[in-house]
Amino acid sequence: MKRMISKVDLRRLKLIDVLTSSENTIPFDELSKVMSSSERIILDDIRELNKEYDEALQISIINGNVHIKKKLNFGFEDILHDVLRSNQSFQNLESLFFNPYKSIEKMALDSYTSTSTMYRKVMHINNSLYEGFNIKLRTTPLSIEGNESDIRKFYYQLFTSKYKFFEWPFHAYINEKELESFMYSFIKELPLDIDFAFFRNMKFIIAINIIRIKKGFKSKLSSNNDIDPFILEVLDKNHTHSKFSKLINLELNLETIKDIFYGFVDELISYSSNELIESATRNITISQSYFQMLNIIKQLTTKFDLTIPNQEIVITNLHNTVTLGQIEVTSNFVSEDRIKSFLQSAKDISPHFLNEAKYLFTEYLEDVFGIKDDVLLNTMLFNIYTHWHGLYSQLIANKNKVNIVVLSSTDHLHARFMGEVIMYDIPNHAEITVIENTFIDEVDLYSYDIIVANFPIGKDLKNTQIYVNNLPTSQDLQNITEEVNRIFKLKNAN
Questions:
Q1: Which class for 323: exposed (0-12), middle (13-18), buried (19 or more C-beta within 10 A)?
Q2: pLDDT per residue over 167-211, tens digit each?
Q3: The whole model's pTM is what?
Q4: Could you tell me if 368 and 284 lie in one domain?
Q5: Parent domain of 180
Q6: Would you say residue 161 lies in a domain?
Q7: 89 FRET partner, CA 20 to 30 A, in 56, 129, 151, 432?
Q8: What is the rounded distance in angstroms from the CA atom of residue 332 to the CA atom of residue 317?
Q9: Are residues 129 and 26 located together in one domain of the fold?
């Protein structure tokens, strides 16, 4: 989908993302390297962004550093939504979803452009569609051609990228509140905890499936899509089946139900850890998936001295991540970039763990499912970090901490007080020691990474010395935090 966005818009989106990911400030020369752009181009982009979003953000250059100041409720995705809404290609493809054009001439007319220009635009659109989804836009008759599941996957990504979280683009076809009511009555019967983010994604998937079905497009369901009898039982309960049929104005049979819930009725998906274990006794693929994932968790916990309190939940989630990989809405290109950025930060924290998990998951995908998919692999890596309870704190605890010693020329109680203030504010990968010895010469000050004192030390000890007031100020705490982060990276670089 990125190929349908202009280079200028992509560059400006990247500029905002880089600035907001760099604690809102970055040296200009470093920014130029990251952006792979000249100083003139970056200055032009800053000028245009300031002009277009003057009430929401302000980018300035002070002493060679680029700063961004923005409203608390404004960010990267606000600009992204604006870019996608104004993009003519996305507008045309969305119109084609709701109200198929009869001819390319009509599409050109509605786009206020010539037919020849529209033909060139279609060629540009097809380069992106074919590369990302293996589908294409036909001109005679005007339609999207390809596997129906791939077409739906494209539209999942289009709508979830283009529309904000609380927006509903399908109001002309499906009442959002009534669909939510039906989904809730259905989901509450399942042994599954679903949060609001997944609920929203599921709602978009079902809406797109329904609209495509009503327009005569059906998925070619595989043998894996035998619907769970439990789902049919839920639909029959309290006349839910007939209510849903009336809501969407569509006669429901078994094939239609499977198509509407396409992706969620696959026999490889498990709604709970117990169901996954039971399914492993009946299905060879699920069995291979479960036991190989169990072995992966064992290898990771042993090698990195970790514990995992929610092991079965993590295994079930990772298994379902692969099964839902073809329809998962959160795999749109925006989320892909965010996941890459997340994993880069994770690599800074725990490079060995990330590399080991990446190697094991790559083997798992090839051995169990016979696939190579970098996007799916990154999603699995993201999920193991976010779903494994206590993983981050354990990885940090196992690293070399930054040692801080606090000295006070008043007394050790004052030093202890300063230590408490500092400890409250600094990252948890530092340890603080307060000196209470009678003779300072008994203390090996060389062994500490940072010395914090309310008096000048007056010795060159080859470590960081930070002079603070009797009560460390916010600037003192910021300086200490920056030094802690810097030294922590150095001590754990290998």
A1: buried
A2: 999 999 899 998 888 888 777 766 566 778 878 888 998 999 999
A3: 0.75
A4: yes
A5: 176-260
A6: no
A7: 56
A8: 19
A9: no
